[in-house]
Amino acid sequence: MLTFSLAQLNFIVGDLSGNVVRMEDAARKAAGDGARIVVFTEQALTGYPPEGLLGESVFLSRVDAALLKLCDASRATPHLYWVVGAPTRRKRVGGALENSLLVLKDGKILLQHAKRLSLDFGVSGERISSEPKPSTAACLEIDGTRVGFLIGGEVWGGAGKADPFAKLAAEKPDFVIVIDASPSFVSTRKPRHARIVEASRQIGCPMAVANQVGGHDQLVFDGASFAATPEGVVFEAPRFEESVSTLCLREGAFLHADGAAIAPLPAFGLPFMEFCRRQIVLGLRDYVRRCSFGKVVVGSSGGLDSALVLALAVEALGPKNVIAVTLPSRFSSAGSVDDSVALCRNLGIKLFEHPIHDIVMICEHGFGTTFGEPLGGLALENLQARARGMVLMEYSNQLGAMLLSTGNKSEISVGFCTLYGDTNGGLAPIGDLYKTEAIRLARYINEYAGCERIPNAIIDKPPSAELAPNQKDSDRLPPYPALDTILKAMIEGEHLCAEDRAEVMAALAEQEKAKGGMALIARVQRMVWKSEFKRRQLAPVLRLRPLLGGNGRRLPIAAEYDHMSIAIPAMYGG
User: I need a surface site. Which of 179, 213, 464, 487 has the fewest CB within 10 A?
Assistant: First the structure.
């Protein structure tokens, strides 16, 4: 029998001393639970992903010192093996760094294994900072059990000349441990589980995966560490929270540390809306606090998007740390201001009112005086958005509250936003949610709370920026259900899960058959292509999907797209 603990902790990138303390605390708990092995996650020492920090010589010197401190800390639990992820220096002149798995015990490094397959999915930039090592198998005998070790990217990298499964299978391990730092995206749970079960069958033994949890810039890691046999996944740690889960392996089967059987896993993961809520809340909380902000400020327009961001911010940070500002213009309806008042009352947050009429009038007058013509049309609309952005940034600068951007993915994708106006902010919490999904999430938050956190009047009213008389989004955009269908097909493509792809393809087929459907598809594509320059300048977006603007999906800005096919299904084999 072998008892081990999977420690999914919320490590902070760059906080070397703090990360050592986190591991010390978890190791003590694991030892108290009777574990012989405590398993931490990939790059646990530095936090993941460390990105460009690994190019800084001062930081690397601190990593070396922290690793020595970590080895020394393992002396406090002399009977416990620590499995730790850390960057190490390759042992040759001018050698690159290695993404390593280390096994520590009683102050000594018993095993060091470097990742053999490095992947770059627009997440880690790992190829820039580390060099994959030639394929070797890492095994260590612990209490009569032959334990093999892998690092996440080796598992997800698939078969090939450097196939780690075949190498490890030749060593005939009894158990394999994987340290991982896999970001959480929509529908990643099932493929993760399937890949490890496949690996378990190929290697011929049970496996356990320790995965990081927490928000790191745009990425969120959900934890959900798990254990699997060739028959399937039998244990999963909590998602979106820290935990130290102690299990024992007896005759090829996993049990709880006390020998009790593990309850069967639910067949399905979190519902989509619950996944979005928890992912955004965790990512928002960690991002704001790690950027050293105690509070956030949001422009409350009385519309759906700002209401949703406020509700999520309250859950993440608490009502005392969320401030709302309503900034009415001469085009704002009384209902929008009243809706903001009702929303903030429901959420228990303070609402300030700062009219922008005088600011806009001064700018209008100045423009007319200088250029000899009145300001109107889109320029006047954008002026209002920029006046609001200016006031909100004044508040942010004066009182030290991070401004949250409230744009959704539909608007951002087609450029239906104002640079230096509603795009201002340090983070865009719902920037990876399409408009129809934002509406669904608002309704779900009310259902989850069992009360009307977001007034139904806000959810039900037609979307409008209220920058001109009687303005509605539908004046310039296709209806959001049609727009989102086209955008999902165009942007997500093959990264849509099977269920979503079937739904999107069916809706797209109907769109193509409709009168003017192909012209609408072409129009949306042109809007996306022409808006790349805006997307490049937006605040970081909390990622819910594998692809996103910025690192995940980049288009050339100065390019000609007229030659592109408008047959969206052909883009991904539809």
Answer: 464
pLDDT at 555 exceeding the cut of 80: no
Overall average pLDDT of the 345-353 stretch: 95
CATH number at residue 162: 3.60.110.10
What's residue 557's pLDDT? 82
Whether residue 49 has a cis bond before it, omega within 30° of 0: yes
Q: How far apart are CA 316 and CA 311, in angstroms?
A: 9
Going by C-alpha positions, the residue among 478, 385, 456, 379 that lies closest to residue 423 is 385
Domain C-terminal end among 228, 259, 290: 259
> What's the rounded Cα separation, in Å, for the pair 574 and 566?
13
Contact 377, 349 (CB under 8 A): no
Domain count, the chain: 2
Q: What is the 3-state secondary structure (H, E, C) of 430-466?
A: CCCCCHHHHHHHHHHHHHHHCCCCCCHHHHHCCCCCC
Contact between 343 and 454 under an 8 Å Cβ cutoff? The reply is: yes
Question: Among 65, 78, 72, which residue's Cα sits nearest to residue 28?
Answer: 78
pLDDT at 35 over 70: yes
Q: What is the DSSP string of 317-360?
A: H-GGGEEEEE---TT--HHHHHHHHHHHHHHT-EEEE---HHHH
DSSP letter at 473 equals G
Name the 3-class secondary structure at 249.
strand
Res. 175: pLDDT tops 90: yes
Domain range for 163 is 2-259
Residues 335 and 221 in one domain: no
CA within 13 Å, CB half, 522 = 10
- Give, for 503, the enclosing helix (H) or strand (E): helix 498-513
Flag the least confident range among 440-444, 537-541, 543-547.
543-547
pLDDT at residue number 20:
97
Residue 264 lies in a domain: no
Structure tokens at 363: 């700018």
- Which tops the pLDDT comparison, 442 or 160? 442
* Domain presence at residue 52: yes
Q: Does residue 148 carry a pLDDT above 80?
A: yes
Output helix, strand, coil percentages for the chain, rounded to the nearest 5: 45, 20, 40
* Mean model confidence pLDDT for the chain: 87
Shared domain for 395 and 248, answered yes or no, is no
Q: How confident is the model at residue 563, as a pLDDT?
A: 55
Residues 247 and 281 in one domain: no
Nearest to 152 by CA among 225, 88, 103: 225
Q: What is the band of 564 on the pLDDT scale with cuts at 50, 70, 90?
A: low
The answer to whether position 267 is within a domain reads no
